[in-house]
Structures are given as C-alpha cells and as structure tokens.
Amino acid sequence: MYEGPIQRLIDELSRLPGIGPKGAQRIAFHVLAADSADIARLAGLLVEVRERVRFCQVCGNIAQDDRCRICADPRRDASVICVVEESKDVVAIERTREYRGRYHVLGGAISPIDGIGPNDLAIPALMARLADGEVREVILATDPNLEGEATASYLARLLTPFEVLVTRPASGLPVGGDLEYADEVTLGRAFAGRRQIGAPGER
Amino acid sequence: MHLTRLDVNDLRCHIALGVDLTPGPITLIGDNGVGKTSVIEAIGYLASGASHRVATDAPLIRTGCDRAVVEGHVSAAGAVNRLAIEIMPGRSNRARLNGGPVRPRELIGRLRTVLFSPEDCALITGEPGGRRRFLDDLLRQHRPRQAAVQAEYERTVRQRSALLKQCAQGRGSHLAEELAIWDEALIQRGSDLTVQRWRCAADLGPLVDQAYAELADDTSVQLTYVSAALGEHADAGDHAEVASGLRNALNRLRAAEIARGSCLVGPHRDDLRVDLGGLPARGHASQGEVWSLSLALRLGARQLLAEIDDGRGEPVLLCDDVFSALDNRRRTRVSDILLTAEQVIVTGASADDVPAALRGSIRRLDPGAQS
After folding, report:
1. Is residue A178 in a domain?
2. For chain A, what percent of residues have pLDDT higher than 70?
3. Which of A42, A124, A203, B238 is most exposed, with the fewest beta carbons within 10 Å of its own?
4. What is the rounded distance in angstroms from the CA atom of residue B27 to the CA atom of residue B265?
C-alpha cells in the first residue's frame, strides 16, 4: 500500500476494464514521472469526454452534436440501415470503407442473465426509422455469438411486417489465412454457408 | 500419442512439478495427499479443458495464487507439440501451442486421454449427470468442435432459465416474443448436442460390449441414449426429428417451465442407459458387474479415440488408484489390457498397489521434493 493520492489513483485505475493491479500501479507511476502538461491534457479530456460527447438522436452512435457525422452526411445511403450492438462496431465497419449506408446502435444485446431485454435496447427508435418506408434493407450485424444471434433473431421477427429486406453478414473463413488454421466452428459455418461459383455447364 | 514432459505450477498442492515421461507404463508412487490425483487431473485438464473432479476451476488453484499453469509435451505422428494452459478462475483461460497464443479450445483433441478412477462405479450406479459428463468429455476429444457446441448449449440454458424466472415474476413486456427466440436457440443447439451424443453412444455401444466380454463374460451390454424430449425408443440421430421433438416438448411444458423458472427439457436432462443382459445395470447389476461395466465404458472410450484416423495414435491412459479396489482376476485382466497401451500413467500409495507388470518406471512423489 502506498500513501495518499497515489494509492487512491491505483485503486481507481484498477477498476477500469482491462487494467489489473499491476497495470494500474505502472500507469500511476508513469503519471508521476510524465510531463505535467501531458497529464493536464489527459485530465482535461477525461472531463471533456463526459461533458461534450453525446449520442446521435437518430442512430444512437457517439456524436458531437444532435446528429452523428454519418447521419448528418447527405451522401450516405438512407435506404440501408446496419444494426450493431456498440459504437465500436460502427468504427470497425467504417474501417472497411465498403459500406455506404447508415447505422443503428442498439446499445448492447439481449441477455436475460444480465437483465438486458428488448426494452433496454434502442429498438423502438429503429422501428420509428422504418416508419416512413424509405429504408429498403436492414443488415443485422450483431456479434456472431449466442446473445448477438438471439438479438438478430428477435429483430428479424419484429421486422417481418415491414417491407424491408433483412440480411445478416456471413460467417466464414478469414481472408488471407490458411484453411488449416481456422477453428472448427468457423470452418463448420463456412462450409454450411458455402456459395456456388459459376453455374454447372457454364463456360 | 504419448507425453514426454509435464510441468505443473500452482495447481492444488503442486508449487512447481516437472517430470520427464517415457512411453509405456509410468507409475507415480507417494503417500496420501502428495498430489498424485492432481497430476492426473492436470493431464486430464490439458486434454479436455475441464477437471474430472470439480465443475468449477477455483478449487484447482493453489491457495494464495491467482492462476495455475499446466504444460505438456505431446509426441504424436512423429512430432512433439507443446501444449500449455493457464487456468484462471473467473476469467478466460489462456492457452499456448508451441509457445504461441491460441484459443483454449484449440488445444482440445491434441492430447487425448482416457481416465480410470475409483469414482467410475458412479458411471453405472450414480445420477445421469455423471453419464452425460462422460459422453461430453468423450465427444470433445473425439470431435473438438463439440467443445463450442456444449459451451453454447450450457449458456443457452442459463439465458433461457433467467428469462423463465422473469416470466414467472411477470417482469418485462415482450416476454413471449423473447421466449420464442430462446426456444429456437435451445432447439437448434440442443438438437445438435442430442444428435452428437446419440451418435457417440451408438458408436460406443459395440466397443463397450466387446470390452465387457474381455473383462468379465459374454453377457450382452447395450448403451441407449435416452432423450428426455423424445423418449428412449426414438431415433435421436436425425436432426429434424430431434428438433421437432424438442419443440413439441417445449410447447407441452411451457406452463411448468415458467412456474419452476428453469428449463425442464433438453439434452441437459438426458441420460445414457446401460443395460446388462437386457436389464438396466443401474439397480440390477452386482457390485462386481458394476466394476466391470464401468471399466468397459472406459475401455470402449479408449477404443473409440484410438480409431480416430488422424495418425496421432491411441490416447494416453490414466489410472488413478484403481487397482486397490479390484480383485486379483480383474487386476490381471485390466493390467494385461493397459500394458498394450502406448503410454499409461498409474498412481498408487505404494508399489504394492500396482500390478507388477505395470510398475514400469516408478516415480516417487514427495511433499517438498518438487523441483
């Protein structure tokens, strides 16, 4: 145990996700040794992020204004909505630069163990976005795990009455990888979802 | 396949145990409490990703430590692979294969083991849970993808049970729709698990029957996978049939499930029935027959794993203090069978507990003599 603020800082840091007691100690001593201007900037950001960062009123993504950068961009295709669990997923999909539609951030996935039901997710807002009939496709890009699949199935059922195409990204082999190193579950899924290349007799 | 080296750190009473191992029989001798069974447990964990003794990992960790590490060098198909697992209760385990990080489930199947232990009688006389665990352990080693199927099924049951409890309390407003989703999840994953277990039981049956004939007499042994949803006469090897059976059962039990707040049907309620001479062994078999049957189940499992044609050879056999409970005739039969194994690791309190033929290379385990 250290005395005073340094111990309190270690305690606070070790409450953060992904940081254990040893990591917290390392960061705390780095803070002590670092340039005080750097630390002041970090401290300022911690406060600012809480005060200034908001959530987009349309899609629930992290934003600086009422609307996020993507919802405010008129060049984005408003007829396609990609539904994801977290803002982190938006960033991941944006990195591909392949997707030109808009997003909807649910804020999690259905998980009864954690007490998270459909009412705790931004589902009504998604339904509201479908009301005007402009949206033609909804991509359900929740995580490919048990809870993500359950959330996608739930949404797929809810979306049945709407005149929209409901899709889910494929699970499969990592590009540029070796088939032999793929784990059995992924490989199994990839086989189940295999595609025909070229029709028989087509030359 | 065989182990050439085993290192165990901070598991149960072991601080840092390291032993070089050879093919053939290896005998671990030591007083009660020096950790012979823990060595067997460590090897089993490396093979199957779970302990044969406890359902949670916390008791495995030496007092005062936050993790245990087991590393084994496995020689198979002409190559040696280094498998290491770091067991961390409350967090995800970490695994390394030849020094590089991999997902823990990717280790499963690289070392295959069959364990004989004094608790094996419970396979015949005990609750269905023990027989389900036996089948699941075997399935994971036989078809490694099953590790994920089993884990997902268990989680589905937990999620659905939590939701059923919420239904019982009347909380939430979309419960019926939400329950329908988890019904489907249970049907999909539950039918997958049921079919796999059913097929495993079907493959295992003749091998167990044969092993029983070698151990005891030619009374017929039959294994039947009994699905709680379908009843025992159903063909649980067909995906669509199992799925529709599960769906019907869920509809039938809807009110009871909500009242009890738990999942009342699915592979987590199934059983593997063992019949001896046409009668259920549980309740009918004598003590001697129970012993022979439980050994025959393990020997059948060994045969099933030995027949996997990936060139990695037969499983490593682990015998945890089994001989003291056997009469002379069975001792001889069992040791004759074990002697044919590529590697067999035997424990006993003293060398006298182990049949002479299996006393191959004797290692003494002493408290404090660990290096």
Report:
1. no
2. 99
3. A203
4. 44
Residue A185 in domain:
no
B182: nearest CB among A150, A158, A184: A150
Low-confidence spans in chain B with pLDDT less than 50: 369-371
One domain for residues A88 and A139: yes
Chain B contact probe: residue of A146, A160, A187 with most B CBs at under 10 A: A146
| The predicted structure's pLDDT at residue B370 | 47
With respect to residue A203, please indicate whether it lies within any of the assigned structural domains: no
- Residues B5-25: tens digit of each pLDDT: 999 999 998 988 898 999 999
In a domain, A190, yes or no: no
Domain count, chain A: 2
Residues A88 and A39 in one domain: no
**ipTM of this complex:** 0.78
Q: How far apart are CA B124 and CA B134, in angstroms?
A: 11
CB contact under 8 A, A117 and B166: yes
Query: Between chains, do B166 and A150 touch, taking CB under 8 Å as contact?
Result: no
A88 and A11, same structural domain?
A: no
Provide the chain B residues 271-290 that lie in CB contact (below 8 A) with chain A: none
Q: Which amino acid is at B211?
A: A
Q: Which of B173, B177, B185 sits opposite A146 (nearest CB)?
A: B185
What's the predicted TM-score (pTM) here? 0.83
Degrees to nearest 5, angle at CA B80 with B76 and B85:
100
Does the CB of A184 have a partner CB in chain B at under 8 Å? Answer: yes
| Mean model confidence pLDDT for chain A | 90
Give residue-wise pLDDT tens across range B174-212.
788 899 999 999 999 999 999 999 999 999 999 999 999
- Contact call for A153 and B174, based on CB within 8 A: no
Q: How far apart are CA B115 and CA B119, in angstroms?
A: 11
Specify the higher pLDDT residue, B169 or A74.
Answer: A74
Could you tell me which residues are beta bridge partners of residue B14?
B11
Contacting residues of A for B172, CB less than 8 Å apart:
117, 119
pLDDT at B193: 94
Cβ neighbours of B168 in A, within 8 Å: none
